[in-house]
Amino acid sequence: MSEYQSINNLDLAKYIQSGDTIVVGQGVAEPIVLTQALIDQRDNLGQVNVFIGPLYQSPFSAEHADHLKFLTYCGAGTNKSIIEAGAAEVILANYSELAPLFARGSLPSDVVFLLLGEARNGRYNTGLVNDYMIDAARRARVVIAEISDRVPWTCGAELPEDIVPDVIVRTSREPISLGSSAPTEDDLKLARNVAEFIPDAATIEIGIGTIPDLVLEALSGHKNLALHSGVIGDVAVELIKKGVIDNSLKPFDQGVSIAGFLLGTRKLFDYAHENPSIRLAPTSHTHDIRVLSRLQNFYAVNAALEVDLTGQVNAEVIGNRYLGAVGGQVDFSRGANLSEGGRAIIAVSSTARGGSVSRIVNRIESGIVTTPRVDVDIIVSEWGSAELRGTTLKQRAERLCAIAHPKFREGLEREAHKMFQTL
């Protein structure tokens, strides 16, 4: 039986013990009313661990590390400043592994904070996300839920019957809304170069943000596309409305766009509400390579912070700053490589810091490799593309130098000659 509380009367010390790990809903599904209460009451709780995914308008900050030890798998959004202040530790795992880690208890989840939509037929709906939180909640001692009447009711996101929130706080809070930043001319070139590889009838995995949105916009003239992705955003909805994404040729989930969570604006939330053509699925379906390999013409589009001349991809660290994540890049790349007709595309801007630094490098300085060279298929920059499957080290270096920014090519070619002249 759930206990109903007003946020003003919620005493977290009744439910949280010193040393507990609290797992908080991620992205736009962060239960901000509960996280703010945790911040306000942290002095009364002792030292606790807080596991967070990417957060975008979160009240969490490094100053709260006096009592809250942050754990995360991702350096995006709010997390970046918390990590840079030394207030968070990064857990390394493929995204597909997070749910099983919680299910086994390898990642603890003593207390879970969820954002839910209103109940129907006695069952609540996670609304904005279907990810590792279900597995975390199933093992939790206490589940505390913020239930907002502004959360959409989405297909596939029903809270399982065996998970009943122990404490419920009702709100009418609007979920976090996210849009894209204005693109540059180089962004447009990069997106067009990516889109050129994607044929009609492809099943697409792609993120959100400026480049992914531009890639999707460049596909507006395609036919019979399908979506099987970790996330769905506003631009994908426009392609669904136009019939560009119709999911008609998938071997399973026909007629349905599959994603793990919604990340966008109210336009997206309203479209997904009670819409059977969009289904939120757990990572066991969205990211499992055994599922992905059954999709024909599966095209995975992911991003890099750096690519070295052998094709190794760093999507996590620049210098000593953890900015990205392992995320689903390896899952999706391997799934695309196993898919009949599939391709794995890594998009990388050729430069950073206003053009002063090349993102295509002779060696990855940090030593952090997200996707190994043997799993990399196509690297795309605004200067062109490098297809790497079945190539030698020397061929890889030549092709990657050719898509680096022109002002860095000569230096990279010299380094490549020294590195690979005998190979």
Summarize the structure.
The chain has 423 residues and is of the alpha/beta class. The protein has helices at residues 32-41, 79-84, 95-104, 133-139, 185-195, 210-218, 234-242, 266-272, 283-286, 289-292, 329-338, 393-402, 406-420, and strands at 3-5, 21-24, 48-52, 68-72, 88-90, 111-120, 123-125, 142-148, 167-171, 203-205, 226-227, 231-232, 257-259, 261-262, 278-280, 298-303, 306-308, 313-314, 317-318, 321-322, 343-347, 351-352, 357-358, 360-361, 378-381, 384-387.
Largest β-sheet summary: 9 strands, mixed
Give the low-confidence spans.
Answer: none
- What number of structural domains do the residues give? 2
Q: Find the structural class using helix and strand composition.
A: alpha/beta
Mind telling me the C-alpha Rg?
22 Å
Count of helices? 13
pLDDT averaged residue by residue: 96
Give the termini distance in whole angstroms.
68 Å
What amount of the residues lies in strands?
15-25%
Q: What is the percent of helical residues?
A: 25-40%
CATH class of the largest domain: Alpha Beta
Shape: globular
Give the tags:
423 residues; alpha/beta; Glutaconate Coenzyme A-transferase; 9-stranded mixed sheet; 6-stranded mixed sheet; 13 helices; AcetylCoA_hyd_C_sf; AcetylCoA_hyd_C; acetate CoA-transferase activity; Acetyl-CoA hydrolase/transferase C-terminal domain-containing protein
Give structural notes.
The longest helix has 15 residues, at 406-420. The protein has two domains: 3-171, 3-Layer(aba) Sandwich (Glutaconate Coenzyme A-transferase); 185-420, Acetyl-CoA hydrolase/transferase C-terminal domain (Glutaconate Coenzyme A-transferase). Strands 1, 2, 3, 4, 5, 6, 7, 8 and 9 form a nine-stranded mixed β-sheet that branches. A six-stranded mixed β-sheet has the order 11-10-16-21-25-26, with helices on both faces. The protein has helices spanning 32-41, 79-84, 95-104, 133-139, 185-195, 210-218, 234-242, 266-272, 283-286, 289-292, 329-338, 393-402, 406-420; strands spanning 3-5, 21-24, 48-52, 68-72, 88-90, 111-120, 123-125, 142-148, 167-171, 203-205, 226-227, 231-232, 257-259, 261-262, 278-280, 298-303, 306-308, 313-314, 317-318, 321-322, 343-347, 351-352, 357-358, 360-361, 378-381, 384-387. Helices cover 26% and strands 22% of the residues. The mean pLDDT is 96. The protein starts with a strand and ends with a helix. By secondary structure, the protein is an alpha/beta fold. The protein has 13 helices and 26 strands. It is globular, with a radius of gyration of 22 Å. Residues 264-416 form the Acetyl-CoA hydrolase/transferase C-terminal domain. GO terms for molecular function: acetate CoA-transferase activity. InterPro entries: AcetylCoA_hyd_C, AcetylCoA_hyd_C_sf, ActCoA_hydro, NagB/RpiA_transferase-like. Pfam families: AcetylCoA_hyd_C. This is Acetyl-CoA hydrolase/transferase C-terminal domain-containing protein.
